[in-house]
Model the fold of this input.
Amino acid sequence: MPRMTTRTPRAPRRTTSPSRSQTPPDVPALLQSTQDALEFFGALEPKRAMAVFAHPDDCEFSSGGTVAVLCSLGWEVDIVVATSGNKGTKDPGVTPQQLAGEREEEQRAAARILGAREPVFFGFPDGGLVNDDELRGLIVRQLRLRRPELLITWDGFRAGFNHRDHRRVGRAAYDAVYPAADDHLYYPRDKEEDLEPHRPLAMLLAGATEPDLHVDIEPVLRTKVRATLAHVSQMGGRQEGDMIRMWRERAAAAGNDGPRLRESFKRVVLRR
Done:
């Protein structure tokens, strides 16, 4: 069993599911067609997002700029981390327990820098994620508890080299969103906490080979870099100025159309 290291509050009782009838019929079409990330975010209501990733630092490396943009726009953002990254070191003197504690604290510091809420940790061992009922059920509970309109996670379906934990948490999050979280007979014990079914309207999949939505992170690049550097155990003494320079040089070399400094995602719109 994983250890949950962040307690979450009991959800208020609801008599109806608030997410089904409040979406105007033209919103899904706009979400699917727009090339403007700010227009995409502006069409989503309520302004709640959840980032579900495998390890401390996954969110900051893949999506930290996007989380910073959302927080600057007044969104509530939750970061859910499936493992505590307790194997991610080359230091032979560090124990898994010590590393897990360090990396959880680093993730909390990064979340504060981005403006996100207190992270939730499932506490699975690094490298040991399985897309099974337990992991999906934990994600379903968070979806029903926090009720995000947008979910950000790894693209668990991309071809090519990919960390097994990234694949599995991406697929588990996808499977949790549809169909499980929105059907009350999946994980019915959530009813004991008065948690109603819920499905986000949209997902953004990080690390996709064919992304179709690009978020301009130039205004928040320094925030992203500082949040990434909060993961001290992983950064090998890198400095803020060097990281910013690296990002700008890579962006210039890429020569992309649209935003130069960007984070890119494959979007999934879930009609309700």
